[in-house]
Structure formats: structure tokens, C-alpha cells
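Protein of interest.
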Amino acid sequence: MTDRAFAVVRAGALTSVQDRGRPGHAHLGVPRSGALDEPARDLANRLVGNPLGAAVLETTLSGCAVRPRCPVTVAVTGAPCRVTVDGRPAAWGAPVRVAAGAVLDVGSAADGVRSYLAFAGGVACEPVLGSRSTDLLSGLGPAPLTHGAVLPLGPVAGPPVYADVLPWQGPPRELVLRAGPGPRTDWFTARALRTLATAVYRVSPAGNRIGLRTEGPPLERAVDGELPSEGMVLGAVQVPPDGRPVVFLADHPTTGGYPVIAVVKERDLAAAAQAAPGTPLRFVLTDRR
């Protein structure tokens, strides 16, 4: 393997390779996937001089540690965390030069859930259907990081970018999700729609890259029985039998058999990716999809 690579020293709770994902393959049963917090991914790539489509590492809560085999410029964005190089403090949200053989440690999220680690040149594992993203649901793309794994890096595309101020909005203290009507609002009572629009839910610790689960009042069905499986989109608010809404994220299934009461605006999903368990959540319903 080329020296333009890095080895995994600490994999963390869940660290995966993510880029812009695989849009356009739902008819094949392949989810979109890609980074959950797209602005954080793009910012990390800008800081190291990468094109925005370059693949980065997405960590979950506990960070990760890697040892580059070559000198490389890196940047960490997303959930704020402690960054060190061989135990010495390094900048978060800025380009950092890491020597060959040094250990770069991205610490646990101090706030939020997911941090993003970009390398100059990008993570260059083999693309599948035009993307290097790890897809937890379908199993496409590289496996989540494991201790000792070695991943290649691509050629450097441009110089790093230094900035005094970053266009970054921190993790939400209260998650507000704007949502238009779903295709199955008529499967729910008027009381359920009022509940969805007025109740305060909380982000459940049971969520993952497939969906954000909620804790709160159940939504009452007006129609009993089963729904034939139908297509699902990013941001769909599906209501399983326990009545508590689930917001579908990037690795969501392309079809599902529970009714969708609403669809969250895509621009609000980055905040959903950073909402820690226990975060208060409100849905703001609009009359437009």
C-alpha cells in the first residue's frame, strides 16, 4: 500500500467514511447515505483544500485516533471536541499539520454527537456506485473503522484555508424540525396532528444513522391495520406501532410499511444529526411539502 495512508489506532464507538452519498439509487433499494451533518463535512474539506465531494471520517460521540503514514494536513469540525497530536493540544476547526507516524486523536464530543475529520487528499477507499460512503443499512462501502485498519489517502488537491471566523452553528439546545405534510396524514386523528405540532419530544438514545428516534406522547391512529410497503424519502417522519415518531436520516430504508405523517425539511437534518440524546425536540408543521 502507498505511504499516502493512515492506520486506525482507536476506532471509537462508530467511525465511518462519508462523502456526499449515493443519491439516485433508491429504485435499486440503495439509500442515499453520506455525511449526516453536511455543512460540517463541507467545512472540514474546505479547511484542508479538498473539493467538497471528498470523503471524510464521521465519528460518533467518542471520536477516534489515527496514525498517518505520511505528513498530512487535517481538520476537525462538527461536534466540538479535544484534538491532540502525540498528546499535545491541536486546533479544532482549523488546518493542522500532522507528521508521519504521529497519533492524531479526535476526542469525545464535548457538545453534540458527530465530529468530522478531513485529510488533505480525502479518504481514497474504492468507490461503490460513485460514492465512498459507508452505508450501515445496505452494507455498501467500506466497513466502519476497526482497530488496525489502514485506509488510503488521495492526492492533495489544493492548499489549506485559514480563517479567523468559521461559519459554524453549534449543536442545538432545542431541536426544531420544520416539516410539511406526509403522504399518510389521513391515517392519523386530528388530535395526533395537534400533538405533533404542540408537544415537546426528546431525542432518544436509540437513534442512529438510519433514523432519529423520539421520546414523548404517542400519535393516535385513525386507520387501523397494515400499510403496504411504499417508498420512503430522506426526512420522512414515520410512526411505528408505539406511536412515537422516527425521523429518517441518510441511511434510511428506501421502502417502509409504517405510515409517514410528515416530512422534515432537508436543511434541518444537519441539526438533527448533532442533537444529543435528551435534547428537547419540537416539530413545526407547515402546509407545504
User: Anything to note?
Assistant: The chain has a mean pLDDT of 94.
